[in-house]
Amino acid sequence: MEGVDFERWAVILCKPDAVARGLVNRVLGMISDTGFTVSNRLDLIAEPWQPHVVYRNLLADTAPRELDLPAYLDAAYTGRQITVALAHGEPGLHARLRQLIGHTDPTRAVAGTIRGDLGDDSLAAARAEKRLVRNLVHTSDDPAGARHEFGTWYGSGRPLQVSDFDRCSVVLCKPDAVERGLVDAVLKRIESAGCTIANRQDVIVQAWQANVHYWDLLVDRGWFPDRDIPACLDDAYAGKAVTVALAYGEPGIHNRLRQLIGHFDPPHAAPGTIRGDLGNDSLERALTEKRLVHNLVHTSDDADAARRDLGTWFGAGRRLLLTSNGVPPQPTHTNR
After folding, report:
1. Is 196 exposed, middle or buried (0-12, 13-18, 19+ CB in 10 A)?
2. Would residue 298 show up in a list of annotated catalytic residues for this protein?
3. Residue 314 belongs to what domain range?
4. Where would one find coiled-coil regions in this protein (predicted)?
């Protein structure tokens, strides 16, 4: 968990009563509808030690209490199914989530909160029946709590598999950008558009990376009788230097970056786009020379493409870098 920014991550615990009542999807939906990104949903059977750790402050409290809290926790959680998930947002999300879930006693939770709208228990009923109140959901109190709860529910030492690819794109500065010394200029243009650039890395391309990246061109190579696509990819990429980086921004980043880099054929790219301002090649010339067009830069098409691009260019198991954070259509003559 080292390096994870728990100022921006919280753990959501959908308690056994939420699972038993079939309310997990509604609970998580209310959280995501409020603007948080919910990911890494995991269904678990609670072990005895886990609620003890989560409620350690209550268990260690020396103030007098009427209830047998350890026994109540065991009865409420041990062997019961729960669902956990991660919520991502801006710093301060822990306090906002606590407001969203509402008062501990559902009868005192206001309308619009999760417990206020979905709760069906009360603290008075719980005390009368000598048990914990059933209030559906818990979220981390603060960053320190999120750190402890992540280790509790997701496993000590388990890497944080955050998948907020709606806010992250892979930037590939192609061999022509490297050869022309334009990598800094390309990344600066992206940064100036409001993105945060991180994890810049220089890569010598292996043949398989180009093949995976341009899988659609290879599958539909029959649409390109004017060029030998596998040979073109080997010639353009294999053994060549590229620079990759991650660009972070708001949801919709993929479309915005695709507009910023411009049309795949530089002469058709509008002024103000990267390819329009910096490009010096054309599809016409590339077709004449039976090669791919040199157009400087690629950014991920969408969230699914960003996931593939990350594995392709940064390597398997590198999703920790994100902690900060059908039938294809008929192809056109592009190389993105």
Report:
1. middle
2. yes
3. 165-322
4. none
